[in-house]
Amino acid sequence: MANIRDLAKEAGVSVATVSRVLNGYPYVSEEKRKAVWEAVEKLNYTKNIQAVHLAKGKTRIVGVMLPYIHHPYFSAVIEGISKEALGCGYQLLLFQTNYEVKRELEALERLRMKQMDGLIVCSHEADWEVFAAYREDGPIVLCERAVGHDFFTVYIDHYQAFAQALRYLLDKGHRRIGYCIGRTTGPNSQARAAAYRDVLGSVGVIPQPQWIFDGCLFLEDGKRVIERWMDMKERPSALLVTSDQVAAGIVLHAQRVGVHIPEELAVIGFDNDPLAEMLGMTTVALPHLALGEKAFRLLHQWLETGNVPRTQEELPARLIVRMTG
Amino acid sequence: MANIRDLAKEAGVSVATVSRVLNGYPYVSEEKRKAVWEAVEKLNYTKNIQAVHLAKGKTRIVGVMLPYIHHPYFSAVIEGISKEALGCGYQLLLFQTNYEVKRELEALERLRMKQMDGLIVCSHEADWEVFAAYREDGPIVLCERAVGHDFFTVYIDHYQAFAQALRYLLDKGHRRIGYCIGRTTGPNSQARAAAYRDVLGSVGVIPQPQWIFDGCLFLEDGKRVIERWMDMKERPSALLVTSDQVAAGIVLHAQRVGVHIPEELAVIGFDNDPLAEMLGMTTVALPHLALGEKAFRLLHQWLETGNVPRTQEELPARLIVRMTG
DNA sequence: TTGTATGCGTTATCAC
DNA sequence: GTGATAACGCATACAA
């Protein structure tokens, strides 16, 4: 492949002039400009972006760390990020971690290696300290609340979201309230656990450990929940389900096996997935797309201006009452 | 940041030796090796990956071109790609195109610029010729059938999938058969249109143009389909729906408005989404994950061995009969 | 086993 | 306006 030295030779100018023309700088005579572009045509030249990255020390690439892609929550967040990035001329490098700390470290190392200009962490497993250790290696924006750490974060207020739904259920008279969650670790899950403790504690309800259903990520997990629920002696009368997919699985399987929703079991989902509207599910609407968009915008501002005030933006959730709870 | 020259100075060796140690080459004395690693520690050194890329002329990055991410079809394909890539130590650079030719060209240009070692095209809008023009610029694997072009492709045989479902409906006595599709352009859509023409033509059925519902991508589009269906004078008695999401929307909304499935309207979805199982939907199972995995494996083999025989792998689809059709 | 020198393809800084 | 030339940071062929 031809490089700018070849171009310079062909056009009878210096490499500096070639570079100026290629990057649209002023102060180049029209005739040389023309000669350069002709050489570009003739030699079928294309810029080598790796060399540009090395010379400039920047890539206009941002990394996106997330556990998995094929999941409505994360694919919505990444869509939001992607949409914004597209508009700003940035590219996205994907780091799928499966919540393995080892993989998270790999992504952070890539930031150190200057493979990307910044990193958006959608969700993670490793301790905050791990991320803090890479602070000097590039801008990092987190999509989870980081209490007691001065990271840049944009996050959905899951405590408030959970508390809101719990109070609604308490008001309706429910006392045996359980919940379904994707995993028990991680800031989002812990915020929800805290809300669960706090709100239920405030009315003197002591929740049973078996009312917490772990590992609920996909539609089919809802089936499992109903099955377990039916086997229980002391069944919860209501369930908070942190994913509308799982909630839909619960509602649909309940229908199949003759469990009446909401009479026997009230169900409140999260996300406000189109599925929730379609099934008439009560749900807490979460702004995933906006989360991704705002996360990118924050990182972008940071990258372009070099320094922005520390930001911790909280995105609100909104209970949408329909028929299942 | 420290570079290998600083390391060399610190360790009292040459940059070549530093490079050897860093990359684990043999024939370095234990004492120098130790000195280098100590220097690495002391100077808090990390390799600059951009420089590595430039020097090696490779990046171990593959691009993934796709219209949108937040869609069950594409997020499944990309999950398959990602899974394989992770295992091989490759990274994924995302190119979301929204089916805009301009964006597709941008991705191809990036391949020319050597930003990535190869490109996987999940779906595209531009003409084959556009892609053919970039053949020399790097390995490209397509996830759509390319008749009459010698691209490397791995694809789902949508003609066969469609034909299979159509014949099943014909056998059940249906004659007024329509279908719902995401878009009418693109190889996959055209393959389905061809199957529709051929199979229906083979039994002398002349399909009505209004039996084709375009722009069906998401759950909520199913609602629209039912509404339009109800407004029709001559309604189709069966619908092929190229996405289980849309099919679920149809089934659920039909239930709401009192349309009986499959008596009044038979519905066959595609994908075998968990939702299809849950709703008891007849569907054609499509191997999305496998598609992504195989596409990456093919590209990977191409990248590692330099030259592989031209491949056009066809992935089969399988009709799963349940209750809606 | 080790070091020197050169290449990778740009961008950026000067001097003219 | 233009052209040398030095970065950018690493890999590697060739010598020794």
TrEMBL record, chains A, B:
SMART domains: HTH_LACI (SM00354). Residues 2-56 form the HTH lacI-type domain. Keywords: DNA-binding, Transcription, Transcription regulation. Gene3D superfamilies: 3.40.50.2300, lambda repressor-like DNA-binding domains. Pfam families: LacI, Peripla_BP_1. The keyword Nucleus does not apply. The keyword Transcription applies. InterPro entries: HTH_LacI, Lambda_DNA-bd_dom_sf, Peripla_BP/Lac1_sug-bd_dom, Peripla_BP_I. This is Catabolite control protein B. It comes from Geobacillus icigianus.
